[in-house]
Amino acid sequence: MTALVQQLSILLGGKFADKGLPASLGQVQVSDRPDLAPFQCNGALGAAKLAKQSPRDIAKEIAEAIKGDPLIAQTSIAGPGFLNIVPSDTAYEAQANALVSDTRCGATKTDTPKKIIVDFGGPNVAKPMHVGHLRSSVIGDALQRMARFAGHDVVSDIHLGDWGLQMGHLITELLDEKPDLPYFDKDYTGHWPEVPPVSLNDLSRLYPQAAAKAKANEMRMYRSRRATKALQAGQPGYRALLRHFIAVSRAGLEADFDALGVHFDLWKGESDVNDLIPAMIEDFKARGVTQDSEGALIISVARKDDKKKQPPLILLSSEGSALYGTTDLATILDRKTNINPDLTLYVVDQRQGQHFEQVFRAADKAGLMGEDMLEHIGFGTVNGKDGKPFKTREGGVMRLSDLLSMANKAARNRMDEAGIGEGLDEKTLADIARKIGLAAIKFADLRNQRLTNYVFDMDRFTAFEGKTGPYLLYAAVRIKSILRKAQDQGLQNGAIIPQKGEEKMLVLALDGFDMALNNAWEKRAPHILCEHVFELAQNFSRFYAACPILPEKDEARRSSRLALAELTLRQLETGLGLLGLDTPDRM
Ligand code: ARG
Question: Is the pLDDT of residue 395 over 70?
Fold first, then answer.
């Protein structure tokens, strides 16, 4: 279906074209003075020079030309030549009922479906997951949901950090603790034990331990580096250990991501492409893509017009180890061979901007993939109230599971305060608290422009008032409860006939869904969808305050409002679902 704003643009565009002017001048937009009219067209201002006429005169001619069209109730001209447009009652009515019949609540699908990889999440096997990974997960998930809903073919990959020095740290630290394990015996020829030699807790203990020692002691660092190199070169015991590390940490991560409601198609990691690296490097060398630099092998990516100095991408360190950029390039090669994406989005902290700039330029230079097919979707940091990156009270990294249980508790407190869920059984209450807690955290993150930093404030996130996740869930649940009562009373939906201003405003809000979705996806900006669902909920509130539903005696009016309420709920739940928010049935 076509949103009203587009129908109007087509109508006005035709009138501009009739005057021999570009139809694009007829672009109608939602008015920034809704008190004057819901829509406006500013094309007359752009047309003046071309038509050698005053903008007001052009606006007058256009207004005259659309007079009597079934879409139009009234027009007026403001200022230098803005054309204000009030749609007709039949336009509102047709639009509302078309939205009801549309299973996608007005959202169109793309005409140009693409194969898209979303690379996000990206936790590291050795290190605990921190709030940066949470942001990546929440934003990446919203993007994968929006892209799928728009009709793209999406493959998401968690892309675990399971290669490089962190693995060398783990191996050497374990060696010091349990030197008798067969993984460290070079002469061992038996099967590798199936039972992992470490637990998740061991992993989170071993890494910081090793990292701290290596920082203080050069020799200790050297051992980690050497172990990393041996692992990459394929030392069987180390490879077997790596498999255990990955499996153990994956089990923990799966539980965490499940709790977060985020799912990946692929659980690949940096280590998966190791075997591709030697041939890739030989090929780069043969084609003259690489250079030697002080013992390291690099790809120079600097360009003449660079404003900032671009350091080269290091393919092999002077010790001969593959680095982060190397695995990212090999991953591009792997994806090209096996998935052949049109577009890859990397949803990763903005502080890795330079890394991705290097990788994309190198991939382009090496002829792997064009830079226009690779996009870094960066984001800002989550800060504590002190303005520094968010930490636990003890100053450590906040773990995802702790963060979620914190949110859960805060949600439960809020419910108790507000008397929400009174009379419901414990299991239902726990489920509601879980949904509210998740909605609080996710929405608080997504509602910001991606690149801005924000302050973590659980109190504000879990409030039932304001632009919060809990407010939106509550708004949806309230409509569910109205609809349940209507059903109990045997009331039916009918055709929507918007009469009052609040009803028309709600229809317009609903009609904005498609544009919000398109913008949010095109700009990779979930906050635009957040804004839409919030506006929708606000408009519903105003409508509900002005237009009684159940007590309304006039049957046509009541059944129209009931249909409008149901449509609102459907679109609200769809929108919230695309942001990764799950609505409870009652509160
Ligand atoms: N493991 C990385 C980190 O924790 C994120 C990985 C992002 N994806 C990628 N293809 N580089 O910073």
Answer: no
